[in-house]
Amino acid sequence: MKRSLHHTATGFGLLAALLFTTSCNRNGSGTFQGVIEASAPGSVTVRRPTDGTRVRFLLDGADTSRAYGLVCGNRITVQYRGSLRATTPARHVAADPTYARAVGRWGIPDPSAPDSVMGVQLLPEGEAQSMRLKTIRYTSWEVAGRCDTLLLHGTCTAADSLQEFSQRAHFGRDSLGREALQLEGGPIVLNRH
After folding, report:
1. What is the number of domains present in the chain?
2. Among 99, 119, 136, where does a domain finish?
3. 143 forms bridges with which residues in the sheet?
4. CA end-to-end distance (rounded Å), the chain
5. Which of these, 22, 37, 118, 175, could form a disulfide with 110 (CB 3.0-4.6 Å)?
6. Same structural domain for residues 88 and 108?
7. Taking every pair of C-alpha atoms in the chain, what is the biggest distance, in angstroms?
8. pLDDT in tens, 15-57
């Protein structure tokens, strides 16, 4: 299930505003904001959700220091040069770092199978899958209103009924200093695997 991603992280919003104010209509350049649909060596394809406009941006010579892997589904702001066409050269590219950081496998060792991990796999485009969990089925995720916070969605089987849930998770470090996701409402800390 694909969900609309809502990113209001302060740092990303400020960066987008800065890029917009410094590039709007100066020397035939502008800013394009949207969602990454595809990335390949040397280019990224971005779709603007408001009207469906798609643009392939060429990255040769562009500042990609804030591209964060160009993960599909991530929000992105591209400052471009020239006029906006189906294929346009990019000057600067900035994506949401929290989204890129989240994609991957997060879990704890499975007590019944020590070589296995149980937890959640966060996929591009806001999809999620449970890993070795019998009663919890993660289906989707999104970046919640602030940096370093996610909202996980799914269903839980309890007392022979299926219930939908949403659960917040915060990035941090575990007691060994490893990157971790702390699930709200309990002591569960998931590590990247």
Report:
1. 2
2. 99
3. 150
4. 23
5. 118
6. no
7. 64
8. 444 344 334 444 578 999 999 999 999 999 999 999 999 999 9
Q: Could you say which of 68, 99, 130 is where a domain stops?
A: 99
pLDDT, averaged in runs of 10, over the chain (193 residues): 40 42 56 96 97 97 96 95 95 95 95 93 96 95 87 92 94 92 90 94
Could you give the CA distance from residue 72 to residue 76 in angstroms, rounded to a whole number?
Answer: 10
Range of the domain at 116: 103-192
Average pLDDT of every residue of the chain = 87
Q: What is the DSSP letter of 98?
A: H
Any domain includes 19: yes
| CATH number of the domain enclosing 77 | 2.40.50.140
Tokens of 33: 């904001």
Q: How many CB atoms lie within 10 A of CB 81?
A: 17
Decide: 105 and 193 in contact? Cβ < 8 Å.
yes
Which residue in 193, 160, 161 sits closest to 174, CA to CA?
193
